[in-house]
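Q: Got a minute? One more chain.
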Amino acid sequence: MTRRTAPRTVLLALGELLGWWGVLILLWLVLITPVYLLEWVVGGSSAAVGALLARAGRRAVTWR
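A: Always. Here it is, folded:
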């Protein structure tokens, strides 16, 4: 038997990840001046990894 996650929980998790990603990508844009395609890919990927780590860290601290 498999457990199903409530759609609201999934949407909240995606919203949190998107929020972290947005903050991190904005910070990255502030710190660099010229933005080329490869830098967008690297910056976006790094922000995504950072968002996952931020969510995991928050969950570890709040026990949720």
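A: Residues 37 and 43 are 10 Å apart (CA to CA).
Q: Perfect, thanks.
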